[in-house]
């Protein structure tokens, strides 16, 4: 075989290896995005599971706050139904649930006996921990989407991505201005005089 045939075979082999390398990198990033989304899902499920216990604990103390409790329960149900509908739908539902929880915890401030209840304090701590985990999971998910989107948009991997059907990932973002507001809630116990 002539030397130029070996050169052509070498170039073809390098191109094939290059293609597979980029393709496998894109698959790895896409799977990382899916894994990151699954981590958000785990934390949201934990949050959804804690809310009925929180409402049950609070219910006995807050006879006159029925509308607040119903709003939390309704927002939780909407958030549970939004699971699997994509980041935008879930972000909206979870934002509404977060707002309802913030209003509930603000109302709790009017009930010193409830604030001292050990069950409530334990649930409050679990909920706070879960909210932190949700926040970290969202950040990791958005970082994963960022890296994935960069890879499918940059040359030369964008060529392989367009040839093989890779689509951009969707960020988990808050759309509503009121959802961006920081809740004004204090969890401090009153100091004895």
Overview of this structure, please?
The relative contact order is 0.15. The protein has helices spanning 3-59, 66-81, 87-108, 112-116, 118-153, 157-164, 177-180. The protein has a single domain (30-180), classed as de novo design (two linked rop proteins), CATH 1.20.1440. The termini are far apart. It has 193 residues and is mostly helical. The chain is rod-shaped. The longest helix has 57 residues, at 3-59.
Secondary structure elements and their pairing?
Layout: H1 3-59, H2 66-81, H3 87-108, H4 112-116, H5 118-153, H6 157-164, H7 177-180
Helix pairs in contact: 1-2, 1-5, 1-6, 2-3
Considering the chains and any ligands shown, give keywords for the structure.
mainly alpha, de novo design (two linked rop proteins), 7 helices, 77% helix, 0% strand, disordered C terminus
Please give a quick description of this structure.
By secondary structure, the chain is mainly α. It has seven helices and no strands.
* Radius of gyration over C-alpha positions, nearest whole angstrom: 25 Å
How many H/I helices?
A: 7
Question: How does the overall form come out from the CA principal axes?
Answer: rod-shaped
Give the low-pLDDT segments: 183-193
CATH architecture: Up-down Bundle
Question: How large is the share of residues in beta strands?
Answer: under 5%
Overall domain count: 1
Q: What proportion of the residues is helical, as a percent range? A: over 70%
Please trace the helix and strand order, writing H or E for each element.
HHHHHHH
CATH fold descriptor = de novo design (two linked rop proteins)
The CATH superfamily is identified as LemA-like domain
CATH class, named Mainly Alpha
Q: How confident overall, as mean pLDDT?
A: 86
**Structural class by helix and strand composition:** mainly alpha
Largest sheet: none
Give the beta-strand count.
0
Distance between the termini: 97 Å
């Amino acid at each position: 075989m002539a030397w130029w045939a070996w050169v052509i075979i070498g170039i073809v082999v390098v191109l094939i290896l290059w293609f597979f390398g980029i393709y496998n990198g894109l698959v790895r990033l896409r799977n990382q995005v899916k894994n990151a989304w699954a981590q958000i899902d785990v934390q949201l499920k934990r949050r959804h599971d804690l809310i009925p216990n929180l409402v049950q604990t609070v219910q006995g103390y807050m006879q006159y706050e029925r509308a607040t409790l119903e709003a939390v329960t309704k927002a939780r149900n909407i958030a549970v139904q939004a699971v699997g509908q994509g980041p935008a739908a879930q972000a909206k539902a979870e934002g509404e649930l977060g707002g309802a929880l913030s209003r509930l915890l603000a109302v709790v401030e009017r009930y010193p006996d409830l604030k001292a209840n050990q069950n409530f304090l334990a649930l409050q701590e679990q909920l706070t921990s879960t909210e932190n985990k949700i926040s970290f999971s969202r950040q990791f998910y958005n970082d994963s989407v960022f890296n994935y989107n960069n890879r499918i948009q940059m040359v030369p991997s964008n060529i392989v991505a367009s040839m093989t059907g890779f689509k951009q990932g969707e960020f988990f973002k808050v759309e509503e201005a009121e959802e961006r507001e920081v809740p004004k809630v204090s969890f401090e116990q009153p100091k004895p005089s």
